[in-house]
Amino acid sequence: MLTAAGSAIETGVAQPALLAKWRRRRRVERTAAVVLPLGVGAVCALLWQMGAAARTGGSVLLPTFTDFVGAVVRVLASVRFWHALWTSESALLLGFAIAVAAGIPLGLYVGRHRTVDGLVSGYLDIAVVTPTAVFMPLVIVVLGPTFWARVAVIAIFGLPFVVVPTRTGSATVPGALVSMTRSYCGSSGAVWREVVLPASVPAIFNGLRQGLAHALTGMVIIELTFLAVGIGRLIQDAQAKFDAASVFAVTFLIVAQGVAMMALLQRAQDGLSGQWRARS
Amino acid sequence: MLTPGSRRRLLPRGPLALQALGLVVGLALWELIGALHLISWFPSLHAVLGRVGELAAQGKLQEPLVQSVTNLVVGYLVSVVAGIVIGTLMAVSKYVNFALRVYVDALMAAPSIMLVPVLYVLFGLSSFTLIAVIVLYASVFIMVNTRNAVAGASSALHDMARSFGAGPVAAFFWVTVRSAGPEILSGLRLGMGRAVKGMFNGELFIAVFGLAALDKSYEGAFDTTGILAVAVVVIVLAVVLSTIVEFANRRLNGWALSPS
Amino acid sequence: MSTDVAVRVSGLAKSFVRETRGRASVVPVLGDVTFEIARAEFVSIVGPSGCGKTSLLRSVAGLLDVDAGTIEVDGKAVTGPGRERAVVFQDFALLPWASSLDNVAFGLKLQGVGRAERRRRARAALEMVGLDGFADALPHELSGGMRQRVGIARALSVDPDVLLMDEPFGSLDEITRRSMQEELLRIWERDKKTVLFITHSVEEALFLSDRVLVMGGKPGRVVETLTPELPRPRTRSQESSEAFTSMRDKIWETLAC
């Protein structure tokens, strides 16, 4: 019993030191997590500034970092940018909505039926590795240079990437859960409602994120290559006027928007699955 | 030699046969719809394949194909090296990960095509721009997969190696890298898909190079047969290249594909 | 028991820092663990999950730094992994891409033994555990019991002074488990190595060991030491002997409080 008392005293002394050491390390890590990426960004901005400034004699094309920052402010303040953004993203909204409305049910269904899955898996495998842009000229020839052509391209870009993760999700629903529901005389409707759908939620969100990323690519690529409207038009006009700073600025803003949208979806997913875990 | 083991390996043929059946039915439907002129603009399969043959015979296909594939190979190799090295560093060092994580995640989330105009400003009308686009498309995926693979490699095996006297470096190369292999290779496969997309989308933007330039010229002429002919070539190219990487994966990592 | 001590652990303490919802707290796992193992002695440590058994074994293996206390093996302080110790892992820790033979030879390879020599020794070790026909099999082609035989062969092939076994049969079914226990004793009777055997099975500990240390409490420490004086070689019939059952009941009593 003496040893037990001794050990209590000993660990009692050791604990604050251990905790302090851990906290110190934690503080260093937290600082590094903020300072290091900012540092990398700052070094890149500096190199960019110096590189561009050194080249002013030869090339007027390359803007300096400060030109770029100025252009971001200018673009944000211009009515034209917001107009272009609406033109582009109204098509994105509709196209992505179509991809989601078609892709989620399709993915869930295919994942639960082995035969159907076998029949379509070849197409899905191909769709994932093929540049969807090869079909863009076809869409334009058929639908003309219209709003609907853009919507169709965006939907085609997004669709496979909504379907594939969703299908994986519904295909990997734990069999034990399905058996359990059946053992309580649950109908196949109940299996879908109570087990397959909730279990596929993380996978569906995965599909939403991947689908949105590709839909966004579709939106940009058609405007940059075949139908010069919206954001694509803005970039091409700036390019024609050798206004590289504006090209960089618009690019930056659209990229930032894309990253923000992905982060929002990720947060929604984390929140939802967190709730899910807490409930079970 | 037909051992029980090799017979078991024939089993995955089931879904494979279905997959083939699905594709054959799809191609037959394509031929039928096209041949019966059910949709005015939709050419039949044999017309499209005939066009591919014609283009090849006229030598119109070879030059753009060589141009595209050359850029692809160079860009892909650069991506593989950069992706694996940087991804491994990010997995091994917390601080490298802190420094680069934000940027890599942003590149993963952002539509890479957006950056093509910027690369065009930087490198102008050259195959260098196209290679840069391919690297941009492919390297990030390889990087992220490598990072996750190395970071998630079995710590139990690492402990085992250390308990038998391996130093940190030996344990890293003997065990960690090896057990990260399958996931790194699955990143390489994803990267190949991305590289083909980068190749085509980059060409489409610049519009004077490779297969995409050919594709674009048919759009101007409302030539749907030509457009689909190019699509067929690109799809076959994408599938063949992905299959090559997949094949390498199976050869090197058969152990990870079997149930354990 | 002879006074020749193989393993000496004294005053061992280890705590971990755990973070829950942003608040850090110290969780003491081992508090003042002290014991000795004589040369050629088979010692088991039995205790409930979370009592620090595995942390203790990892410390002795040199895979875990401790906060306080000392560990000596063969009179030398442990500061890291060493050749005189070999570990048998709970989840086997076999390289999934390597054959049984290469898995067994892996420890020898890391210790710089030449190719021909290590293949010879690995074959001998495989034979010892009864797997001579499975040298080329990959781990996923083997059953759980066979995989752990490979793990044991790997540890034996480097000819350690002390064998550290971390719940080696913990993930096997009861039937395989019992035959593996008998197999282990058969191998151990040949050249009696010093063994530190971690388990959560009271019967396993009693059946195998010269001495059983019962761990418990938070932080974990040795709360009871028992010496099952059953004659060797052990047989299953001893499990129904008075000595065995009374000792088993005593351990259960200790663990209950």
Describe this structure in words.
The complex is a heterotrimer of chains A (280), B (260) and C (257). Chain A has ten helices and no strands. Chain A has 280 residues and is mainly alpha-helical. Chain A has two domains: 61 residues; 215 residues, MetI-like (MetI-like fold). The N terminus of chain A is likely disordered. Chain C folds into two domains: 177 residues, Rossmann fold, CATH 3.40.50; 66 residues, no CATH class. Chain C is built from seven helices and ten strands. In chain C, β1 and β2 form a beta hairpin. Chain C is globular, with a radius of gyration of 18 Å. Classes of the chains: A mainly alpha (280), B mainly alpha (260), C alpha/beta (257). The interface between A and C is medium-sized, with 14 and 16 residues.
Large-scale geometry of chain C: globular
Structural class by SSE content of chain B: mainly alpha
pLDDT < 50 runs, ≥5 residues of chain B: 1-13
User: Can you tell me the number of structural domains of chain C?
Assistant: 2
The number of helical segments of chain B is 11
Uncertain runs of chain C are none
Terminus-to-terminus distance of chain B: 24 Å
Task: Briefly note the CATH topology name of the largest domain in chain C.
Answer: Rossmann fold
Q: Can you tell me the CATH class of chain B? A: Mainly Alpha
Element string of chain C (H = helix, E = strand): EEEHEEEHHHEHEHEEH
Query: Total number of β-strand segments of chain C?
Result: 10
Helix content of chain B: over 70%
